[in-house]
Amino acid sequence: MPDSVSISTDMPVMPIGETYPEIREAVAKLCEGFPSEYWHELDQRRGYPTEFVKALTDAGFLGVLIPEEYGGSGLPLSAGAAILEEIHKNGCSGAACHAQMYTMGTVLRHGSDDQKRMYLPKIASGELRLQAFGVTEPTSGTDTLSLRTTAVRDGDEYVVNGQKVWTSRAEHSDLMLLLARTTAKEKVAKRTDGLSVFLVDMREAKGNGLEIKPIKTMINHNTTEIFFDNLRIPASSLIGEEGKGFRYILDGMNAERVLVASEALGDCQWFAQKASEYSREREVFGRPIGSNQGIQFPIADAYAQFMGAKLVIQKAAALFEAGLPCGAEANAGKYLAAEAVWKAADTCFQTFGGFAFAEEYGIERKFREARIHRTAPISQNLVLSFIGEHVLGMPRSY
Ligand SMILES: Cc1cc2nc3c(=O)[nH]c(=O)nc-3n(C[C@H](O)[C@H](O)[C@H](O)COP(=O)(O)OP(=O)(O)OC[C@H]3O[C@@H](n4cnc5c(N)ncnc54)[C@H](O)[C@@H]3O)c2cc1C
Q1: How far is it, in rounded angstroms, from Cα 318 to Cα 333?
Q2: Which tens digit of pLDDT belongs to each residue from 150-184?
Q3: Which residues are catalytically annotated?
Q4: Which residues in the chain belong to E strands, given as ranges?
Q5: Phi, psi dihedral angles at 233 (to 5 degrees)
Q6: How does pLDDT run across 274-314, given as a tens digit for each residue?
Q7: Residue of 176, 212, 375, 389 best suited for mutating to test ligand 1, as the one with most atoms within 8 Å of CB
Q8: Mean pLDDT of all residues belonging to the chain
Q9: What would the pLDDT profile of 58-75 be if each residue is shown by its tens digit?
Q10: What would you report as the CA-atom Rg of the chain, rounded to the nearest whole angstrom?
């Protein structure tokens, strides 16, 4: 044992209590204005929660990660995570607007001063929405490096051709962060080269080479297919250097995992609270169903899983904020949160018995929504393969 242990003050500090209690309280208060009926009505007609997104924007919550010099609050990642967790804990959904928090990071880290000055203040004020993130394609799926959408330089413009799928919120966004191939796969030195990121102004592009088609899904996610047919965009739409786009997107992935997993953590608490409340009130065989351990233990089990997932996510956020590697924690946290929320959703569903199926209780809607965490933004298998290969050093599967 060494005689003395020096403790670096640069070490990330894990929070003991809840992070950002005042922000959490304010978000919870805002959410009171958007009860289950609001979300149910939108779910029925596949509507976009315009009023909710506006309320979040007006309160400054969607701009928390934007630096103060560009009109945001300049808070760290865990503030964004706290906001999204609280939204979901209070029965609302951040899916309509969460992309702004992580797509904006790419512009912030890799955009030019002009791009930042032009877009970030308007994104912070809500004048412009940057909610669309065009990565996934029908043929490449998870294999992002095989995407086929091309952007070919032609004078002061790029000409974009191809197709994206699952581009959420495209109909409700002004801007899209687009990943496209600028150099053919066969011509690049490294497999990760040759892709570039563009900030596409969809207001100008719609009807001029960009077509958006909604996809009907089991959750109200406003997701779409996007077709590019000789879409001309200014060369100034390129973010950073041509050919380095894949690395820019990877840079933002850990933050995205932390933010989206925080929504799952919020949902876990919502399900646990609903289930435990109902189990105390519902009496069958002359006693509350919650006194049966067959009902009580699965709820407690789901809650214990939530607590573990939350610690890992908090650690990932602390490492990220300290500028330290956090891939293992962000991926593991996302994995654990997605499993915990699925367990919590299924348990809550079971606790409500037949009434879980009735739309008015809101359980079936939240149950459907909870399933997304095991698939997007990255599927559980791909997270496990990251941990298997990059943390445990096992052979690659792809
Ligand atoms: C509602 C919704 C919203 C979305 N929003 C967006 C968005 O805004 N922008 C965007 O770009 N994308 C978005 N996505 C896409 C999402 O990120 C992908 O669906 C997800 O990454 C999986 O890709 P895929 O559907 O093509 O599955 P595939 O890649 O076809 O994979 C199918 C299955 O095979 C498994 N698999 C594949 N390869 C391997 C392997 N090597 N080892 C083990 N298992 C493997 C996968 O884990 C998965 O379970 C969204 C998806 C949905 C459903």
Answers
A1: 13
A2: 999 999 999 999 999 999 999 999 999 999 999 99
A3: 256
A4: 130-134, 150-154, 157-168, 175-181, 195-201, 210-214, 223-234, 238-239, 283-284, 287-288
A5: -125, 150
A6: 999 999 999 999 999 999 999 999 999 999 999 999 999 99
A7: 375
A8: 95
A9: 999 999 999 999 999 999
A10: 22
In this structure, the residues whose C-beta lies within 6 A of any atom of ligand 1 are: 133-136, 141-142, 166-168, 217, 221, 223, 372, 375-379, 381-382, 385, 397-398
Two structure tokens written together for 309: 């997932």
Task: Give the Å distance between the CA of 311 and the centre of ligand 1.
Answer: 26
d(CA 72, CA 11): 26
Burial of 356 (C-beta count, 10 Å sphere; 0-12/13-18/19+): buried
Q: What domains can be seen in the chain, in order of their start residue? A: 21-129 (1.10.540.10), 131-245 (2.40.110.10), 247-391 (1.20.140.10)
Closest CA to 237 of 330, 334, 110: 110
- DSSP structure string for 281-327: H-EETTEEGGGSHHHHHHHHHHHHHHHHHHHHHHHHHHHHHTT---H
Give the model's pLDDT for residue 8: 54
Residue in 272, 378, 279 with CA at minimum distance from that of residue 333: 378
In terms of Cα–Cα distance, which of 334, 274, 285, 290 is closest to 310?
334
Which residues does 97 contact at the CB level (< 8 Å), separation at least 6?
53, 56, 57, 62, 129, 131, 169
Q: pLDDT tens, 28-52?
A: 999 999 999 999 999 999 999 999 9
